[in-house]
Amino acid sequence: MTIDHSSEPKPEPYAVTIPETRRLCGDAGRSTIYVLIGRGQLVAIKAGARTLVTTESIRTYLAGLPRAKIKPPPRRRQRGRQKK
């Protein structure tokens, strides 16, 4: 009998690559990610030649962004049905 481990949740990685950081930040540009690292808003670490960004710093950065202020669409007028 084999045990199926595919349904078990995978642990969150401690750090991710720059392309993965871009994806997690809403497809931000590569240079934007490096600007955020330079400002200290994202924490980067080195693993040999690879630059990795800590997932904790990504969560903290995203949590600190302001909420979007989006107005609801105007109410649509109903056509065809008239009140009697």
Summarize the structure in short:
This protein is of the alpha+beta class and 84 residues long. The chain is built from three helices and three strands; from the N terminus they run βααββα. The termini are far apart.
Task: Write the SSE topology.
Layout (H helix, E strand, L loop, with lengths): L14 E3 H7 L5 H9 L5 E4 L2 E5 H9 L21
Antiparallel strand pairs: 1-3, 2-3
Features:
14% strand; single chain; three-stranded antiparallel β-sheet; 3 strands; 84 residues; alpha+beta
Can you walk me through this structure?
With 84 residues, the chain is of the alpha+beta class. The protein has a domain at 15-63. It has three helices and three strands; from the N terminus they run βααββα. It has helices spanning 18-24, 30-38, 55-63, and strands at 15-17, 44-47, 50-54. It has a three-stranded antiparallel sheet. Strand 2 (44-47) and strand 3 (50-54) form a beta hairpin. The radius of gyration is 22 Å and the shape is flat. The model has no long low-confidence stretch (mean pLDDT 90).
Order of helices and strands: EHHEEH
How far from one another are the termini?
71 Å
**Helix percentage range:** 25-40%
How many helices? The count is 3
Overall pLDDT, averaged? Answer: 90
Q: Work out the strand percent.
A: 5-15%
**Strand arrangement in the largest pleated sheet:** 1-3-2
Low-confidence stretches: none
What is the approximate shape?
Answer: flat
